[in-house]
Design goal:
Blueprint lengths: L1 E6 L6 H12 L5 E5 L5 E5 L3 E6 L7 E6 L1
Antiparallel strand pairs: 1-5, 2-3, 4-5
């Protein structure tokens, strides 16, 4: 298993990110696209996601994926 960490931009809304992740995971064959704090786009094929970890609201706005 491989892990992927994405640092989200300063203005990222935690609840919206969680909703976007949940929506993508409920759709087969989807790629979840996130934009990191440097403006790069990161695509995660949801079929490969084993788990998602989102830091607390007080942390550095990180989202982590365990990819199988």
């Amino acid at each position: 298993m491989k892990e992927l960490d994405v640092e989200l931009p300063e203005g990222a809304e935690r609840e919206k990110v969680l909703a976007d992740i949940e929506a993508a995971l409920s759709s087969e064959g989807t790629i979840l696209w996130l934009t990191d704090r440097k403006g790069r786009q990161v695509g995660v094929p949801v079929a490969k996601v084993a788990y998602v970890e989102v830091d607390s609201p007080d942390s550095d706005r990180r989202v982590g994926f365990g990819i199988s």
